[in-house]
Design brief:
heterodimer; A: 480 residues; Arc Repressor Mutant, subunit A; 3 domains; nine-stranded mixed beta sheet; three-stranded antiparallel beta sheet; 13 helices; B: 478 residues; alpha/beta; Amidase signature (AS) enzymes; globular
């Protein structure tokens, strides 16, 4: 018995950055505020209150859709998803069921193995046994993957339940500051086949949304949450079986996401070995992720199938998005530089490699800093490669530095080393003569004195010698 | 002085001419409430202290352009949120609920200077057509205390009929203004869906809820609708269409001689609205009303509409579905009493609505009902290509005896059979008193128009009211 294929689809939730909440005038700013201070009858679900849709949030959702190559249908509407939870004050969530703002998009991914990813996901002791890892035919330097995006829809966030103890009594406190914050959901097809691919997909989505400027996607603040749905294609005695679908709810870090998927692959494999249960309609289960034990756990039995009684939200008239509105948003997006466009420039114009691009485009502000520096550096004879290397290797604090200052500094250090080899040789000869005892130490094996000797040369050269060249000549001149 | 008997326009004129003060006006209403509300039971809450305090602040000011209702007492149905005044929707779940904000309708009334004197009884959550399914008590019909006032805005209709207030507000989802107005013999205007804001009205069926005035005369109805109507930034379903000055329009028509105006009007009478089992006197009074219009010079055209029995099915499914979702917030966690306080009717509706929205049944019930709703809308559109307005009986009967709703779970729907089609189509309609039965109970006709044709409806109604004497009759409650 072996795993032939892993299938993962993803639902990503992103809190939009807007002035006000999705359906009321309250500020969209759930952090750093006193609990329940940003509330009104609408987001508290008080009797008689009504939702009024936020145009800014709708436009930002359509922008995400366009950036993910989606089709924007003319007709759209909101629906009610009915379920009970204490932090859902109306007893239903306003969301979009069958007519989302954006559908049928796609995203190209470059897949890299984890050791090439800059984030620290690598936890050797928790890696899957090799036997459970499907062949990674899609991995490698140049492998590209096209992921289909089913839909991008808009909904409202719920409040926050805080389970705690007050005066010795276990209680649940409710904070509705978050209630009604616009939440975008991006749903992919189940086309990812490994945790690596899932992480690459999520990181790319995150980057695009950050570049669009519609959300900060701060994972720690819960501004971006992941819900993978996973199952396996298993080969057993020449036959193929699909394991039942499992959706893992509300993961808010890449590390947990990776761990949850890998845990689930192993768990489903073993469960199938025991039960031989195959995927069928109605046996999808929902699991949570325990961040302490680093395991998934069952939240909802399949018998309690999801029953949300969706129906069109009668309080909000349906939308008709005009061609003009769509073309306005398209022209808006054409003025925003998205990661792929910038990556293309970085390859074609600046000749950077994937590793360099990965670092330099990680933050939009860094990519812009780099581009500005390249523009300025040209006049100073500083190449795009040099600038890239300095930024990456010296971990330049670009947020506190202007491109002009930065280029000036590079220029200065470049012009510093004006002495040629001949001049340097003269100084080296002098230093050797003046420091015979030190040279003796060096010959005895105290190689660390080399630095002292280089320093002495620099002193005579008033810092105008390239230390690398000094070292080279010094080593040649020192008796072996 | 019995100032409580005045209409809104009479009271405004009296105040302007300083014939009496708003204090006296309000006091007469409270006196009337004290005298007879023990028998009628129209009010859930009487806010005497708040009202008298408000009146004091008016001082010597009189109604003016900015505050056209300054000092005019109003009774408001108890499903409209009133800041700092208990709002229960006559439901035990909300027995002690005090809203933190005013419904837009209440806000507009207050801004116009009106004085809220009390909150009126209704069928709990507006689920009913009798005001007998209030979780608190049954309101009685002022024309006969052994009869029901209709509902769900029965408290407001009874308060107007019994002269306990000068003006009143109701809300209609399908019949809840027109039917109690018919049984109580008063003017009840159900505006086009989206003409008056629903913000702050405890939702029953969100896609048909329409607040509107319940008044003693058509003039009053025109004045109040003009104040309440319009786009509300808190209700996305309100229309941005400009609001005509209804009162001025009908007065201009009246001055120019209603008779000449009504001559150009085509009135459609749907034969299906004289349903089997309709009370003979209701039918006769409707025919007499048609004769009045004929004499005024209107052209009467017999038309055919989809059998109203289909509207009952469509409305029942859509309304129950929305109710099941709208009542989900009353879980007793954040406010109000818990779910065990729900009455029988609410529970029944929640269950039926939950069922019709469930996976596997949605297409069969909700979706199909929506499709039939579209057909009903188209049916009206077709009719309005031939006629300007539609006229028929409002309710198939006069006020029924107290106790009749016991065990009759579809009572409301069958009572509202003649108003449900226009409600689910979102159309405006008005009830006018068309006369009385031999038992002295009022009968009602309704005039239905196209969307946003309130002006036409009010003009037609005004012409009828001027040609008849019915609105001047008062019940004897001594």
């Amino acid at each position: 018995m072996k795993i032939k294929k892993v299938l993962v689809g993803l639902e990503i939730h992103v809190e939009l950055k807007t002035k006000s909440k999705m359906f009321c005038g309250c500020a969209n700013d759930s952090d750093n505020n006193k609990p329940n201070s940003l509330t009104c009858p609408a987001c508290l679900g008080l009797p008689g209150a009504l939702p009024v849709p936020n145009k800014e949030a709708i436009n930002k959702t359509i922008l995400i859709g366009l950036a993910l190559n989606c089709h924007i249908p003319q007709k759209s509407k909101f629906d009610r998803k009915n379920y009970f939870y204490p932090d859902l004050p109306k007893g239903y969530q306003i969301t979009q069921y069958d007519q989302p703002f954006a559908i049928n998009g796609w995203l190209n991914l470059k897949i890299q193995s984890f050791d090439k990813l800059r984030i620290d996901l690598f936890e050797p002791e928790r890696l899957l046994p090799q036997s459970r890892r499907p062949e990674r035919s899609r991995m490698g330097q140049n492998s590209k993957l096209k992921i289909s995006i089913r839909r991008v829809h808009l909904e409202e966030d719920t409040g926050k339940s805080i389970h705690t103890e007050v005066c010795g009594e276990k209680v649940t406190l409710l904070d509705f500051n978050k209630s009604g914050i616009p939440l975008v959901e991006i749903v992919s097809d189940p086309q990812m086949e490994s945790a690596e691919e899932v992480i690459a997909y999520c990181q790319k989505i995150r980057k695009i949304i950050q570049y669009l400027g519609v959300s900060d996607c701060d994972l720690e603040k819960g501004q971006m949450r992941f819900e993978p749905t996973i199952n396996l294609l298993i080969e057993d005695q020449g036959k193929e079986f699909y394991t039942p679908l499992v959706e893992i709810k509300n993961i808010n870090s890449f590390r947990f996401l990776k761990r949850a998927i890998e845990f689930e692959i192993e768990r489903q494999y073993q469960t199938f070995q025991e039960t031989k249960e195959e995927k069928s309609s109605g046996n999808k289960t929902t699991r949570g992720f325990d961040q302490v034990k680093m395991v998934t756990f069952e939240q909802r039995h399949k018998e309690e199938a999801e029953e949300y009684r969706y129906f069109p939200e009668p309080d909000i008239p349906p939308f008709r998005i005009s061609e003009k509105e769509i073309s306005n948003l398209k022209s808006q997006i054409s003025r925003i530089e998205l990661p792929e466009a910038i990556e293309k420039i970085f390859i074609e114009k600046y000749g950077l490699n994937d590793a360099q691009i990965e670092v330099l485009t990680e933050e939009k502000s860094l990519a812009k800093f780099y581009e500005d520096c390249v523009g300025l550096g040209g006049d100073e004879g500083i190449s795009s490669q040099e600038i890239a290397n300095i930024i990456i290797n010296k971990r330049i604090d670009y947020q506190n530095l202007s491109p002009i200052e930065f280029i000036k500094k590079i220029g200065e250090s470049k012009n510093k080393f004006v002495l040629d080899d001949k001049d340097i040789s003269v100084f080296i000869d002098e230093v050797i003569k003046e420091n015979l005892k030190v040279v003796e130490d060096y010959l005895k094996g105290k190689t660390q004195v080399l630095g002292f000797l280089i320093g002495q040369v620099q002193k005579k050269a008033l810092g105008k010698a390239d230390p690398k060249i000094v070292q080279k000549i010094l080593l040649e001149k020192l008796p072996h | 002085m019995n100032l409580n008997k005045l209409t809104i326009t009479e009271a405004i004129n009296g105040l302007k001419e300083k014939k009496f003060s708003s204090e006296e006006l309000v006091e007469d209403c409270f006196k009337r409430i004290k005298d007879i509300d023990e028998k009628v039971r129209a009010f859930v809450t009487v806010c005497e202290n708040e009202a008298l305090e408000q009146v004091k602040r008016i001082g010597g000011n009189v109604p003016n352009a900015e505050k056209p209702l300054l000092g005019i007492p109003f009774a408001v149905k108890d499903n409209f949120c009133t800041k700092d005044i208990k709002t229960t929707a006559s439901a035990k779940v909300l027995e002690n609920y005090v809203p933190v904000y005013d419904a837009t309708v209440v806000k507009k009334l207050k801004e116009a200077g009106a004085i809220i004197i009390g909150k009126t009884n209704m069928d709990a959550w507006a689920h009913g057509s009798s005001t007998e399914t209030s979780d608190f008590f049954t309101t009685r019909n002022p024309w006969n205390l052994n009869r029901l006032p209709g509902g769900s805005s029965g408290g407001s209709a009874a308060a107007i009929a019994a002269d306990m207030t000068i003006g009143a507000i109701g809300s209609e989802t399908a019949g809840s203004i027109r039917q109690p107005a018919a049984w109580c013999g008063v003017v009840g205007m159900k505006p086009t869906y989206g003409r008056v804001s629903r913000y702050g009205v405890i939702a029953m069926a969100s896609s048909t809820d329409s607040p509107g005035p319940i008044t003693k005369t058509v003039e009053d109805s025109a004045l109040i609708l003009g104040i309440l109507a319009g786009k509300d930034e808190n209700d996305a379903t309100t229309s941005p269409l400009l609001v005509p000055n209804y009162l001025r329009e009908i007065r201009v028509m009246g001055e120019m001689g209603g008779i000449s105006w009504i001559k150009g009007i085509k009135i459609g009478v749907p034969k299906e609205y004289f349903i089997e089992g309709i009370e003979e006197e209701v039918k006769n009074n409707t025919l007499k009303a048609i004769d009045v219009f004929k004499k005024l010079g209107a052209e009467i055209v017999e038309i055919s509409l989809i059998d109203p029995k289909y509207s009952v099915a469509v409305y029942t499914i859509l309304q129950r579905s929305e109710v099941s979702s709208n009542l989900a917030r009353y879980d007793g966690i954040r406010f109000g009493n818990n779910r065990t306080f729900f009455g029988q009717e609410a529970k029944r509706r929640i269950m039926l609505g939950t069922y019709t929205l469930s996976a596997g049944y949605f297409d069969k019930y909700y979706l199909k009902a929506q499709k039939v709703r579209t057909l009903i809308c188209q049916d009206f559109e077709k009719a309005f290509q031939k006629v300007d307005i539609i006229l028929g009986p409002t309710s198939p009967c006069t006020a029924l005896p107290v106790g009749i709703t016991k065990g009759a779970s579809m009572f409301g729907e069958l009572q509202d059979i003649l108003v449900e089609a226009s409600s689910i189509a979102g159309l405006p309609g008005i009830n006018l008193c068309s006369g009385f039965s031999q038992d002295g109970l009022p009968t009602g006709i309704q005039i239905i128009g196209q969307n946003f044709s309130e002006e036409l409806i009010l003009k037609t109604s005004f012409a009828y009211e001027q040609a008849t004497e019915w609105s001047k009759r008062k019940p004897n409650l001594e």
